[in-house]
Amino acid sequence: MAPPCSNSSPQSIFLLLVTIFAAVSHGDNSNSNPNAPLYTYKYICDPQRFEQLGLNMAQFGFCNKSLPYAVRAKRLVDSMTLAEKVGQTGNGATGVQRLGIPQYNWWSEALHGVSDVGGGSKFSNIVPGATSFPTPITSAAAFNETLWKTIGEAVSTEARAMHNLGVAGLTFWSPNINVVRDPRWGRILETPGEDPFVVGRYAVNYVRGLQDVTGFETTDDLNTRPLKVSACCKHYAAYDVDAWYAPGNFFIDRYHYSANVTEQDMVETFLRPFEMCVKDGDVSSVMCSYNSVNGIPTCTDARLLRGTVRGDWNLHGYIVADCDSIEVIVDQQKYLADTPEDAVAQVLKGGLDLDCMSFYQTYLENATRHGLVKEADIDKALINNYIVLMRVGLFDGQPAYDSLNQNNICSAEHVELATDAARQGVVLLKNENNVLPLNTTAHKNIAAVGPHANATHVMLGNYAGTPCSYSSPLDGLSRYAKVSYLPGCLDVACLNLTYIFPAVRISKTADATIIFAGLDLSVEAESNDRSNLNLPGYQNLFIRQVASAAKGPVVLVILSAGGVNIDEFKSSSDIDAILWVGYPGEQGGNAIADVIYGKYNPGGRLPVTWYTADYVMQLPMTSMQLRPNDDLGFPGRTYKFYNGSTVYPFGFGLSYTNFIYTVVSTQRSVEKELGLGRHCHQLQYNTSAYIPPCQAAIVEDLSCDDDDVAIDVLVTNTGTVDGSHVVVLYATAPEGIIGAPIKQVIGFQRVFVAAGKSEVASFKLQSCRSLSIVTGSAYVALPAGEHTISVGDGDGAVQFPFQVYFKSQKSF
Ligand SMILES: *[C@@H]1O[C@H](CO)[C@@H](O)[C@H](O)[C@H]1NC(C)=O
Ligand SMILES: *[C@@H]1O[C@H](CO)[C@@H](O)[C@H](O)[C@H]1NC(C)=O
Ligand SMILES: *[C@@H]1O[C@H](CO)[C@@H](O)[C@H](O)[C@H]1NC(C)=O
Ligand SMILES: *[C@@H]1O[C@H](CO)[C@@H](O)[C@H](O)[C@H]1NC(C)=O
Ligand SMILES: *[C@@H]1O[C@H](CO)[C@@H](O)[C@H](O)[C@H]1NC(C)=O
Ligand SMILES: *[C@@H]1O[C@H](CO)[C@@H](O)[C@H](O)[C@H]1NC(C)=O
Ligand SMILES: *[C@@H]1O[C@H](CO)[C@@H](O)[C@H](O)[C@H]1NC(C)=O
Ligand SMILES: *[C@@H]1O[C@H](CO)[C@@H](O)[C@H](O)[C@H]1NC(C)=O
Ligand SMILES: *[C@@H]1O[C@H](CO)[C@@H](O)[C@H](O)[C@H]1NC(C)=O
Asked: Where would one find the signal peptide in this protein (predicted)?
């Protein structure tokens, strides 16, 4: 979705539309009072409400609770004229007064807390703010599935409470689950990182936290499953170029970009989190993206929408456009030289149920009258949409949440969860001589310097609402020490040397110096990709000068989403410790201080590879392939395919204690039966490899329902402080299979282990899912032979072989 402020086309047009829309949608109540509620009703099918409108509710079958939602939705749609139907096809649904259907703005956001982006929810006197959790890249670094779900539950509780107070909708277009393919991408902060499986697990947990009503996690007919709020996985698919200035003046933005993607990369990387979100998370909405895939704008691609999402994955919900993406198809992509009527007809037929902005509302009526599309296709789309509004209680209410109110928003419990999430997401990158944690006796006069030392809104990233309150790094550190503060750089651009010297001076006398550096939305954001991986302006010079002059230990704290080139500080003896904190949300300062002073032992891991600076000189942002391209000299992308040097690898993160692994499970093989008449599948091997007689099986040909792989890892904390540790399990396919990933994450668990104690992390896996690879021709295949399982990576990793055999009922 377009950012809340920008001046480049088409967002400016779009902003204007938002403004007009906002005025219209609030017009009902009082367009001059910013504190008026957005919704004057709690739910639609209330007989008193109908009476006040001069209507008799009993006449309207769509309010008959004894009928199934699908029947009620059809009754509603069947009672509308074509013009009335078309009025409901955009996010600013006009409502139908004669039927007692009010206006509804479908567009609310809840990426890491209830936001007011989109206008379907707002902050005012009624609800001044909501808990702003860490940005997803920070929460992702916690590698804690319970945390992701718990945050989702807290956010949906605040959303329902706001809805009860008339200031929030019930349809939220979050989370953003695009895989981070390139370190320059501006929207890394919104995502859970570069591994498709981790991103998929984040999606499933966050969506379940937002959507699930306790006791209704599954139902016989999932189209009737009640929802706490409706979530949306976006942006589908292969969307991760925003606005990139390449060397030589080449510029490409998301409105004009066609991603050239192989089917292998689609299945393995770009679609996988969406598949998990729909199948395992049972999300109630998917949003298509601005870009094209192989020349076809995703929102008009019937194969991707109707075929894959609704057909193959069986979505229970609606497919929505990114904002103004039909306009983008016509005016920017100029796809097939379509007129607006052609375009709305195509996207509707392709499976798009709801538009964001007004292209459907403006052109669908004429497109239907001119015979370009069937009116019945509009009916189907509206029925998909209304069923979700019924499931979420907009028609009948959701009594389980009636009692939620202001006390459930910014509650002490939620603010503590935001603090804990930030603590869990902190990644310790360097800690020479165990300089951290600092000590309140030895380090009671400290210097806090750098452009982010007093960060507030920067910690929220984007798609934020108004937070409950802020704890800046200065606030947090002041709870432990007397803090002298000078920014050294006025902002992240850091273009004025004048401010550096005073900051250097205060570090000369401090017991310890903490430098807060990094990026913000001026460098990495929606519609803003990076062109290099360096810290901006004079930040390096500033850090260097402070570090060399400082009396006490020096701790560098980086706020950023994507990796930054800090190779120099990684090896510099002047920098004793480095922490990466992402954009840690409203309580970031408390969390950082708790880690620095040892109240919390850090256990986060990098969710993206930190490439060396020269990486981005080796390949353009527009090369979509994950595998290296030796002909063009492109290195691979992500830890799965990039074998070159890094500043810090994916999954890196230290602790104040030490952990060792012992694999205690004894299973070292699995035997799968190939069904009658099924064939062994051939893979491509390099010449020196051992090739088993039956090389692989297509996963669809196997029975894969049970967890047939059990791996138990004993994690022992050999140090003197308690700590949480992330156990990451990787699999590597048998040697010699061409194109197989270097390794891939198949499971992860964050476990708390007290000092001197041990805990078992148990993994129950399906060999078909966890040990399979995606072949060059896009089959998901399970290779026979000796796979390698690695527990953790780097020095402490433990590896063991794991055999896959096939038993055939019939010879091949
Ligand atoms: C609601 O639908 C049921 C089932 O079709 C029907 O028996 C009942 O009469 C309807 N109620 C009203 C008020 O129309
Ligand atoms: C995971 O997150 C949950 C929810 O915040 C928390 O209670 C738990 O302690 C975390 N687990 C670990 C091992 O840190
Ligand atoms: C994608 O492929 C098309 C057709 O081969 C080509 O014209 C276009 O330049 C390619 N785009 C990129 C970004 O590689
Ligand atoms: C719809 O069609 C009518 C007559 O064909 C035309 O006057 C009108 O301008 C069209 N509306 C739009 C939005 O194109
Ligand atoms: C903190 O520093 C003081 C003074 O240097 C020292 O006596 C004490 O042992 C230290 N405490 C810890 C926990 O290291
Ligand atoms: C820190 O930032 C807050 C909010 O912008 C501001 O009110 C406060 O004065 C700043 N503190 C210092 C010491 O500059
Ligand atoms: C740097 O800041 C100083 C003090 O505010 C100001 O006088 C000077 O003009 C600035 N220099 C630049 C290059 O902006
Ligand atoms: C790393 O990948 C590149 C690109 O495919 C390849 O040429 C090189 O041989 C690989 N290096 C190692 C050590 O595997
Ligand atoms: C080919 O496979 C062998 C092991 O069978 C391995 O040592 C070698 O690195 C592989 N070569 C390539 C180019 O992948």
From this structure: 1-27
